[in-house]
Amino acid sequence: VTLYTSLPPRSERLAAGREFGAAYQRECIASWRHRGFDVVSLNSHPEIETLLPLRYGVTFKEVTISPPRISDFLTVIKEEPAAVAGIINADCMMIANDPTISLVLRSARRGLVLVERLNIGADDLRATGTSCFGFDLLLFTKQVLDDLEFVPESSIGTPWLYYWFPISY
Predict the structure, then answer these.
(1) 54: number of Cβ within 10 Å
(2) Around 22, how many Cα atoms within 13 Å sit in the side-chain half-sphere?
(3) Chain segment 38-63, per-residue pLDDT in tens
(4) pTM, 2 dp
(5) In what order do the strands lie in the sheet containing 2-5?
(6) DSSP bridge pairs for 155
(7) What is the largest CA-CA distance in the chain?
(8) Residue 156 half-sphere exposure toward CB, CA atoms < 13 A
């Protein structure tokens, strides 16, 4: 299963008053790969040129507009042979255990799984217990993609984008 994202050219992540952006981004990607996912990032040419030296170990797909439009994601995902795919926010670390990941993937083969992030505090790195009011990982069977309706201008980061997917589904 491949996770699709759009890595930012410069990651920012403050923790205990220190900047850990690139290191945190590297750990997010490592957490996905550790659980068996391949990673593809959709970025513009200038962004890819900035990201390549960081050696994140992902495959880049070039898009013309940054941030990529949802139509860019759907086009790239449809081209891949796997039956299940996922879209994930670049700044989400995956901390689920292997049995949970297996359950989520089995469920995604039958439809759609939505995952909300666990917010952590910037000062103490502990769970805040507050909702982010959205979904940061969508795993789904590709069968649903042809029937989705969306506003063509919608891009990653568009408010309500992660509500659009389950509503359209």
Answers:
(1) 15
(2) 10
(3) 999 999 999 999 999 999 999 999 99
(4) 0.90
(5) 59-62, 38-43, 2-5, 84-88, 137-141, 112-115
(6) 69
(7) 46
(8) 24
